[in-house]
Amino acid sequence: MTKLGLLLATCGYVGHVPLAPGTAGTLVGVAVFYGLRAFGGTVAEPAAIVILFAVGVWASGVAERHWQRTDPGPVVIDEVVGTLLTLLWLPLTGLGVFVGFLVFRVLDVVKPWPADRFESLHGGLGVMADDAMAGVYGHLLLRLMIALAPAGWLV
Questions:
Q1: Helix, strand or coil for residue 36?
Q2: Domain count of the chain?
Q3: Range of 100's domain?
Q4: What is d(CA 59, CA 3) in angstroms, rounded to the nearest whole number?
Q5: Higher pLDDT, 139 or 151
Q6: Is 111 left (phi over 0), alpha (psi -120 to 50) or beta?
Q7: What's the pLDDT at 27?
Q8: How many angstroms separate the CA atoms of 29 and 52, rounded?
Q9: With bands split at pLDDT 50, 70 and 90, how would you rate the model's confidence at 44?
């Protein structure tokens, strides 16, 4: 079960890229987003978020025990969930998805309150919750940008 947990936590070992694994994980999130948009209905996005969050809590806990440290760098399933939350149900253009990608990455690094507090939750929940909160913030910020955007450059 450890191998399966590590495979899922690192999104097929994408988290082992030598430079910027969090960014690589966010790119996986963008790919999942496009797949859900192409083949899923409106319920597919939130269902994927719930499933990936639950799987991520378990897999991240496995990874923490395996590497014996909190929120190990190769764990990127949290970035996938955060990205999906940022982009959830928004009618974005390619440019809008790129802006969402950037917004999430900044929020994931900065971790505004209470996302920074969620990191201290025990085990895999702490790994997942801070990025989920960053994704919620990213979603709200994108909605604000869409409302203020001239001529719909994001949608």
A1: helix
A2: 1
A3: 2-12+20-152
A4: 10
A5: 139
A6: left
A7: 98
A8: 11
A9: very high
The position carrying tokens 């430079």 is 19
| pLDDT for residue 122 | 87
CA dihedral 85, 89, 94, 97 (to 10 degrees): -20
CA distance 49 to 97: 17
- Is the four-CA dihedral 149, 136, 96, 73 of positive or negative sign? positive
For residue 121, count CB atoms less than 10 angstroms from its CB and return exposed for 0-12, middle for 13-18, buried for 19 or more: middle
pLDDT of residue 42: 84
Task: Name residue, tokens 């799987």.
Answer: 55
Tokens 């203020």 belong to residue: 148
The token pair that represents 116 in the structure block = 């920074």
Mean pLDDT of 57-77: 96
Place of tokens 């929020």: 107
Would you say 22 and 76 are in contact if contact means Cβ atoms under 8 Å apart?
yes
